[in-house]
Automatic annotation (TrEMBL):
Stretches with biased composition (Basic and acidic residues): 144-155
InterPro entries per record: GenomicStab_NeuMorph_Reg (IPR052283), LRR_dom_sf (IPR032675)
PANTHER family in the record: LD23158P, ZINC FINGER PROTEIN
UniProt source species: Asbolus verrucosus (Desert ironclad beetle)
Protein name as catalogued: LRR 8 domain containing protein
Top-level taxon in the UniProt lineage: Eukaryota
Stretches for region Disordered: 144-167
Amino acid sequence: MNLSVISALRSLESLDLGECSDFPTNFGEEILVNLKKLEKLRLEKGQGNCHTFEILDAVKQMPQLEQLELVNFDIKTGFDTALGGCSNIRKLLIIPTYISQSATTNHMVLGGVLRLQSTLSHFVWGVTLELLRVTELFVDQCEDPDKKEKKDKKPAGNGDSIPVLKPVPLITDKDDTIPPAHDPPQVEILPLPNLQKLLLQSLPTTRVKILKIPFHATWRQSITDTVN
């Protein structure tokens, strides 16, 4: 795949690209950063060996770029710090893949977004229905059998929770640092209403939306559709 032609489009203001797993290592530093007038960037399917950190390093060097959408991206350890450096981004959509290590993924997304608390105006977090179902099954399997009767009476919608590595990233007025995850890892099951509340408290000037969607519909989501 020859992407070098893109770097010549110096007046480009909006760019959508898919199959980001196939991009070369130098896509960020030699191609993306040349798009000085780019305002909106949407990237899809950044999985496997995708050079996500190199891309984010380029993003933070693009002062005109204010809208970033990452759809079906693997979120790896270190993503929080890399995303936190992109203080130029005002509108952000993230839909992780949730194929494995979902608790780590959510910890990284939350930690990264909180680092943008002073600059982010819009944030959309896409959570797949498949992740919600798997999390509910995990909770059911770990539950004390003696509580089965109580479990059977749980209200509808109680399964809307996601796993997050402890400690759950949180910024308070007294402490603006985000602690690292526990070692060995421990998982917190965080209901989506609690996640929404946490985000609204930590990002008081940001419009926040948690989007529950099936995986097959992730490709059709955009910031424009969800917050405008």
